[in-house]
Amino acid sequence: MSHRLKHTTVTTPAASAGRKPGPAAPRPRAPGPTMAQRYESLTDEMLARYRVRVRKWRTSMSGCAWEVSYRDGSVSRLIEAPRPKGPMSAAVFLHEIGHHAIGFHTYKPRCVEEFYAWAFALSEMDRHGIGITENVRKRVYDALHYAVQKAKRRGLKELPEELLPYEHPRRK
Fold first, then answer.
1. If you count Cβ atoms within 10 Å of the first and of the last residue's Cβ in the chain, which end, N or C, has fewer?
2. Cα(142)–Cα(145) distance, integer angstroms
3. In this predicted model, what pLDDT tens digit does every residue of 99-153 receive, in sequence order?
């Protein structure tokens, strides 16, 4: 038993008017800002709120935060970080902003300051609706594990309670 396929022609408005069909109409977008606009808004808000200046936008997923105090009492708050364009770059950027938000030398030892700067970053990502991916979680864990190991090498006698989960390497 053979089956014959019936040939059908779909006529588009362009074809019926004697023109070649053009590109498909763009898909309607969900209402609200695009992710690029949300990242830009986040960046502008954080820099203004904490009065931080970007010395350099890095192309790598690394960052640095510091402040410069002048004789007249003024302080410049500076960072180098990647421009937020995705979850990982946003996490690194917010971590560096976090150092200014929580204040340098607020927590001792330094590994505790790192913990709270990362906590700030994750909290702000959540608040702004930026997904915290598994890669971001891995980055945070690895950074805190590194900070703990560095503190131990430098003579840390007792690990603060909030850093106990980061004492050992992450299980794969």
1. N
2. 5
3. 999 999 899 999 999 999 999 999 999 999 999 999 999 999 999 999 999 999 9
- Contact assessment for residue 118 and residue 144, using Cβ atoms and an 8 Å cutoff: yes
Q: Give the single-character DSSP code of 19.
A: S
In the structure encoding, which two tokens stand for residue 18, read together? 């004697």
The string of pLDDT tens digits covering residues 85-100 is: 999 999 999 999 999 9
Task: Give the residue, 32 or 165, on which the prediction is more confident.
Answer: 165
Cβ-Cβ contacts under 8 Å for 130 (sequence gap 6 or more): 38, 39, 42, 87, 90
Six-digit token pair at 9?
Answer: 């022609």
Residue 137 lies in a domain: yes
Secondary structure class of 76 (helix, strand, coil):
strand
How many CA atoms lie less than 13 Å away from 98 in the CB half-sphere?
23
Is 100 a member of any domain? yes
Q: Is the pTM of this model over 0.70?
A: yes
Within-domain flag for 75: yes
- AA identity, residue 164: L
Q: How many domains does the chain have?
A: 1
Residue 134 lies in a domain: yes
Domain of 108 in residue numbering reads as: 34-166
Cβ contacts of residue 107 below 8 Å, gap of 6+? Answer: 113, 115, 116
